[in-house]
Design a protein that fits this description.
about 190 residues; mainly alpha; two-stranded antiparallel ribbon
């Protein structure tokens, strides 16, 4: 019978020698870094999804990352036109499900509710990856006949990397932020 390999930890890691060696200051600093990255990439995710929706709806409106705070006020006041409302609704809905993906919870009242939540999450996040890719491809010629157009391969690579980067940083920095804040409160509670 083969023995399972034991994971090795290094000095300064969370569980070296059975003790926790991560200081509260380190947890606070890394939580702040993850929080800032999560905030920035969340805004990028919302605006790129909305801009892709505007392009698909053939709108000439351009949204910039700084405009998302005003959108919340416009949503509350009911002062958005139909196209802006559709784009904002999709952009913010995807962000809410990215948040749920970042901070997963399996405490459901009924198992069917959990399956429905995961299904909607897959649709929205998958759709977001598609719209972010289309956002990058908009206005670029990738192919010229059966070959790549000039610079087309680079555009295609960016169209693949951009959605993965935006979704990955949004989800995993959210997870890291939650983990570090949880560890920080656990450490402070123990004091």
């Amino acid at each position: 019978m083969r023995r399972a390999r034991r994971a090795r930890t290094v000095e300064g890691s969370l569980a070296y020698g059975g003790e926790s060696h991560t200081s509260p200051l380190w947890l606070l600093a890394t939580a702040a870094i993850c929080g800032i990255a999560w905030f920035i990439f969340s805004i990028l995710q919302i605006t790129s999804t909305e801009q892709a929706v505007f392009h698909m709806l053939q709108s000439t409106f351009t949204i910039k990352p700084g405009m998302t705070a005003q959108q919340l006020l416009d949503l509350q006041n009911g002062s958005m036109d139909q196209t802006n409302l559709e784009a904002a609704g999709i952009g913010w809905a995807v962000q809410i499900f990215m948040l749920l993906l970042s901070f997963p919870s399996e405490h459901y009242i009924h198992p069917a509710l959990g399956r429905a939540r995961r299904f909607v999450m897959y649709i929205l996040v998958g759709g977001d990856i598609l719209t972010d890719g289309l956002y990058v491809l908009n206005g670029h010629q990738v192919f010229n006949g059966f070959s790549f157009a000039s610079g087309g391969f680079g555009v295609l690579v960016v169209a693949i990397l951009y959605p993965v980067a935006i979704c990955g940083v949004t989800v995993f920095c959210g997870m890291e932020l939650a983990h570090r804040v949880d560890r920080l409160f656990g450490r402070l509670r123990a004091v």
